[in-house]
């Protein structure tokens, strides 16, 4: 993907990652495929609109990502995350359009004592969200060979909602101590870091398959919170707690860490360190701190 006149359709383009992609990919011709104008669940209408767009690439961000809601509305989760991805994949294949789909660390069970890489077997999810997203991955692999599947986790970006925004809102001076989970490990990841690497992948049309796009380095949620407050200059006290202290309808994986093996094997630049990406984001999102 290079030069002038590249047309990119972004499904779910009004969401947090979609909004960042609109900034990072601004040099290209972008079409925001989001409700109510575009409905990925209407197969005939979606394919017709996609054909009329003359798109070169579809970046598929649309998904049901409310993890706890997926547990109580499983049919809707599978409808959007699995069947919706099948509809997008089949339309792209029929029209000869490259597909880039966004997925998640939740496709893994989270039991490993090391980061998951792209060659680890996925599909052991313990949540409806993770299982439905893995089903969506399989739909894409089956129905659109010219694809990239990009897994991300612990995402934050402009406007939120995200852990960063939640912490900044909670640290309003009314809570002397905040309890934050300290036994879940992951890679805090900026939408800007993801979008920039997606752009690199799009510029290499020979690439296909699954890539992990989380920031380098790891942290617990408590460590992530402490770094947010350090950068914000807030003297907020954090009390570390366990996952068991915050029971949720959908169990959270203790290990969300993703290794970026495919970036390394393909000779692509590494993702930025999570602390570096967070510092850039905090300056952009909260300029008065």
Strand and helix map with partners:
Layout (H helix, E strand, L loop, with lengths): L6 E5 L4 H9 L4 E5 L9 H11 L3 E4 L6 H6 L1 H22 L2 E7 L23 H16 L3 E6 L2 E2 L6 H8 L6 E5 L3 E2 L2 E2 H12 L6 E4 L6 E2 H12 L4 E5 L19 H5 L8 H12 L4
Parallel strand pairs: 1-2, 1-3, 3-4, 4-5, 5-10, 6-9, 7-12
Antiparallel strand pairs: 8-11
Helix pairs in contact: 1-7, 2-4, 4-5, 6-8, 8-10
Structure in words:
The chain starts with 6 loop residues before the first strand and ends with a helix. 39% of the residues lie in helices and 17% in strands. The longest helix has 22 residues, at 74-95. The chain has a domain at 7-155 and 189-216 and 257-272: Rossmann fold, CATH 3.40.50.720. The strands form four sheets. It has a six-stranded parallel β-sheet, with helices on both faces. A two-stranded parallel sheet has the order 6-9. A two-stranded parallel ribbon has the order 7-12. Helix 1 (16-24) crosses helix 7, helix 6 crosses helix 8 (221-232) and helix 8 packs across helix 10 (274-285). The chain has ten helices and twelve strands. The relative contact order is 0.15. The protein is of the alpha/beta class and 289 residues long.
């Amino acid at each position: 993907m290079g030069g002038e006149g590249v047309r990119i359709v972004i499904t779910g383009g009004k969401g947090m990652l979609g909004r960042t992609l609109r900034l990072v990919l601004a040099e290209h011709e972008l079409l925001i495929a989001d409700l109510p104008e575009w409905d990925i669940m209407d197969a005939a209408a979606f394919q017709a609109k996609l054909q009329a767009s003359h798109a070169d690439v579809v970046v598929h961000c649309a998904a049901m990502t409310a993890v706890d809601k997926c547990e109580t509305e499983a049919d809707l989760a599978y409808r959007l995350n699995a069947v919706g991805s099948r509809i997008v994949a089949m339309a792209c294949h029929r029209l000869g359009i490259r597909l880039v789909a966004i997925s998640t660390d939740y496709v893994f069970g989270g039991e490993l004592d090391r980061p998951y890489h792209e060659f680890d077997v996925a599909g052991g999810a313990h949540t409806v969200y993770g299982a439905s997203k893995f089903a969506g991955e399989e739909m894409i692999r089956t129905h659109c060979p010219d694809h990239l599947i990009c897994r991300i986790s612990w995402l934050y970006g402009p406007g939120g909602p995200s852990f960063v925004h939640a912490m900044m809102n909670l640290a309003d001076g009314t809570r002397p101590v905040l309890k934050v989970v300290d036994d879940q490990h992951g890679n805090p990841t900026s939408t800007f870091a993801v979008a920039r690497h997606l752009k690199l992948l799009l510029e290499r049309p020979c690439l296909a398959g699954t890539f992990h796009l989380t920031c380098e380095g790891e942290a617990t949620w408590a460590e992530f919170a402490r770094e947010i407050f350090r950068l914000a200059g807030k003297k907020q006290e954090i009390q570390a707690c366990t996952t068991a202290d915050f029971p949720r309808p959908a169990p959270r994986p203790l290990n969300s860490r993703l290794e970026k093996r495919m970036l390394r094997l393909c000779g692509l630049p590494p993702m930025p360190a999570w602390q570096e990406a967070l510092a850039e984001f905090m300056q952009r999102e909260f300029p008065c701190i």
